[in-house]
Amino acid sequence: MKKFLPTAFGAALGTLIYTRWLGSAHTFDWERAIFVGVVCGIAAAVWPDKRADKASGDGR
């Protein structure tokens, strides 16, 4: 949960900023922002942490 919320929020916020000011429609795309936030949050939650590998001595 420590990695899910910041990553999901950051990705969703970035998507909203992009679709509002840089997208062709110039409107907030809430559905896309929610989707991107959830997918990026899940990826951050399941991705292995590099610091944990170094601490255990299993550095690759």
What keywords describe this structure?
60 residues, mainly alpha
What's the helix-strand series? HHH
* Structure annotation, total helices: 3
In terms of structural class, how would the helical and strand content be classed? Answer: mainly alpha
Strand content: under 5%
> Oligomerization state of this entry?
single chain
Largest sheet: none
Query: Radius of gyration, Cα only, in angstroms?
Result: 15 Å
| Low-pLDDT runs | none
The chain-level mean pLDDT equals: 87
**What is the overall shape?**
elongated
Distance between the termini: 25 Å
Report the strand count.
0
- Estimate percent helicity: over 70%
Quick overview of this protein structure:
This protein has three helices and no strands. By secondary structure, it is an all-alpha fold.
What would you note in describing this structure?
With 60 residues, the protein is mainly alpha-helical. 72% of the residues lie in helices and 0% in strands. The chain has helices spanning 4-22, 30-46, 50-56. Helix 1 packs antiparallel against helix 2 (30-46). The longest helix is centred in the first third of the chain and has 19 residues, at 4-22. It is elongated.
